Amino acid sequence: MSRIVMNQLTHPQRVRLLYKTILRLHRGLPAELRALGDNYVRDEFRRHLTCNPMEAQLFMTEWARYASTITQQLGIRGKPKGELGEQIDPAAVEMLKDDQVVQLYELMLAAKSIGDDTSAANDIRSK
């Protein structure tokens, strides 16, 4: 979509477009990752319905970056080209609020449990 058209959209329209784009991109993920990703995206977009404008801008920027990354990793055909995802910057983790760290940890456990149901339980026990 061209930049001119994007500038003419209202904020709710831009949010909806990004949300639907991400869900569409998730169609190229393996089934387990798609389910996890779709649920996480739905939850995050719902949580940010009433955020302040500064948080909304950061939210949109980060999710647009995510969509761009997934697009590059899935390629034109929509199938993974190698490994999916990227390492998180430790400096970025340091800037997270406590509830965000908990949420990130829970997401990590859910992602690890997709491949092996016992790995998440082992991670919890080792902490």
TrEMBL record:
GO CC aspect terms: mitochondrial intermembrane space; mitochondrial matrix
InterPro entries cross-referenced by the UniProt entry: SDHAF3/Sdh7
Pfam families, sorted: Complex1_LYR_2
Highest taxon listed in the record's lineage: Eukaryota
Keyword set, alphabetical order: Chaperone, Mitochondrion, Transit peptide
Function description: Plays an essential role in the assembly of succinate dehydrogenase (SDH), an enzyme complex (also referred to as respiratory complex II) that is a component of both the tricarboxylic acid (TCA) cycle and the mitochondrial electron transport chain, and which couples the oxidation of succinate to fumarate with the reduction of ubiquinone (coenzyme Q) to ubiquinol. Promotes maturation of the iron-sulfur protein subunit of the SDH catalytic dimer, protecting it from the deleterious effects of oxidants. May act together with SDHAF1.
Subunit composition and interactions: Interacts with the iron-sulfur protein subunit within the SDH catalytic dimer.
Protein name (record): Succinate dehydrogenase assembly factor 3
Organism this protein belongs to: Drosophila gunungcola
Classification lineage: Eukaryota, Metazoa, Ecdysozoa, Arthropoda, Hexapoda
